[in-house]
Write a structure and sequence with these properties.
mainly alpha, 16 helices, 2% strand, globular
């Protein structure tokens, strides 16, 4: 992320409103992460569907199809995202840049094949009784999205981040235009327009990887080598992404809250709308988080570990460690402070937002709970990022598994308790893992010198 940090510092040093807005905009795009981009995709295309579908049911089906494809692709690509980006970081640090492209292409093919066949197997249940082109289209879309999430996770660390932003803007514009033309001929072609847009975006991003990491080889399975691969990160990536979608899946397939909309594909009208809105509300907090961690914390982190590598004096080590710890605290506190201000502002104008989007005010109480849950999820993301910096891989795996497990169990319990408790399972699971994460990170930072010099030798 050094290239991104340098560019953001250049923008912030100018001190103008324009440069600050640009830094904020790029931070929103780069920090939002695959899951938030996915949520925005669902919201964007569902709004287009509402405009062009003459029948409201078709608009709902279109939205749900995209939601299922996005959710499944994020879960299936989760193990590859963290493990492979860590592999690339290690190779760049070791000056083995020529290994990046062949391993990326191999990881991309493996990830997309796993996603395709998994989606195909699941499609025989989801699309029972429907034409087989739905099976094929759904499976290819999941595969393309999985490749897109893997590539985007890799490209976040490139210097020319304007290319990433432009690629998303161009692809989504083209996809929206294609949808307008295709939707007149049926639901399947409308979904095909979404597929073409994601396919185009993936190709844009792949070109960037190929140009930035030239190599004479095209195939290499080195990223799966046990001596170089961190499978604990694959485990963490799988359960982190599954945990994010666990409560949604519970509400979709529960007989209490879910209803079928297309074959065996179900949705939860009572839960899906407020959770999407609560996720979109995270954009300001995500931008502040990205700016703080990549502009400020990354510099303090480098200063401390540079002193470690160069055998700095004890006084310098303690000085740099204290700066790094204070910076880590500032990342969490400032992110939550910015998000709290955003949440309060949203609550003040929520009726206007719901009226503008033609959403019933009956969703507002649940929206308040899920808004708190989304803020706690942002807190968990901050802790996850900080713990990744310090290479606490096993702890990340444990926390991710705990989040997924608790979110499933507590979401089911919340349904049994009744509508008043909807959303509390999601909030409580995140509250627990946040407390555990803070305890783990606090203890690590308290013992930073011991863990750096003793446990790593």
């Amino acid at each position: 992320m050094a290239g991104v940090s340098i560019e953001l510092r250049k923008l912030l040093r100018k001190g103008s409103l324009t440069s600050l807005s640009l830094a904020f905009g790029y931070s929103v795009t780069l920090s939002s992460g695959n899951w938030l981009i996915a949520v925005f995709s669902i919201f964007f295309f569902s709004q287009i569907a509402q405009l062009f579908f003459s029948a409201g049911k078709n608009a709902l089906i279109y939205q749900v199809l995209i939601t299922y494809a996005v959710a499944l692709s994020l879960i299936l690509s989760g193990p590859f995202q963290l493990m492979f980006t860590r592999y690339v970081a290690d190779r760049i640090f070791e000056k083995e840049v020529e290994r990046v492209l062949p391993n990326y292409l191999t990881a991309l093919v493996v990830c997309m094949l796993v996603s395709f066949f998994s989606a195909l197997a699941l499609s025989f249940y989801l699309f029972t009784g429907k034409p087989y082109y739905y099976h094929t289209l759904f499976s290819f879309t999941v595969a393309i999205l999985s490749g897109l999430w893997l590539t985007n996770a890799l490209l976040v660390g490139l210097k020319k981040y304007r290319y990433i932003v432009l690629s998303f803007l161009v692809s989504y514009t083209i996809s929206g235009i294609l949808f307008v033309f295709f939707i007149k001929k049926g639901l399947a072609l409308g979904f095909f327009a979404f597929y073409l847009g994601q396919f185009l975006l993936l190709n844009f991003l792949m070109v960037k990887v190929i140009l930035d990491y030239p190599s004479d080889k095209l195939v290499d399975f080195d990223f799966l080598d046990r001596k170089r691969a961190y499978y604990s990160l694959a485990f963490a990536g799988l359960f982190y992404n599954f945990g994010i979608w666990a409560d949604k899946i519970v509400f979709w397939f529960s007989p209490l809250t879910g209803k079928p909309v297309f074959a065996n594909i179900k949705t939860s009208v009572v839960y899906d709308i407020p959770i999407i809105l609560s996720y979109i509300s995270l954009l300001p907090g995500m931008a502040v988080f990205f700016l703080k961690i990549e502009v400020e914390f990354a510099e303090r982190y480098d200063e401390y570990y540079q002193a470690v590598r160069e055998w700095g004096t004890l006084e310098l080590l303690y000085k740099n460690a204290n700066k790094m710890i204070e910076s880590a605290k500032a990342v969490l506190y400032d992110t939550l402070r910015a998000q709290a201000i955003t949440d309060i502002f949203i609550i003040f104008i929520e009726e206007f937002i719901f009226k503008l989007l033609r959403i019933s005010f009956l969703y507002i109480p649940l929206f308040h709970i899920l808004l708190l849950g989304a803020t706690l999820q942002l807190s968990f993301m901050v802790l996850f990022a900080l713990m990744s910096y310090f290479d606490l891989r096993k702890h990340l795996a444990i926390l991710s598994f705990s989040f997924a497990f608790l979110n499933i169990i507590l979401s089911i319990l919340s349904q049994l308790l009744g509508p008043y408790f909807y959303g509390y399972g999601y909030v409580t699971s995140l509250l627990i893992v946040n407390i555990l994460g803070m305890m783990i990170l606090r203890r690590f930072l308290h013992e930073i010198h011991y863990r750096t010099y003793i446990l790593r030798t």
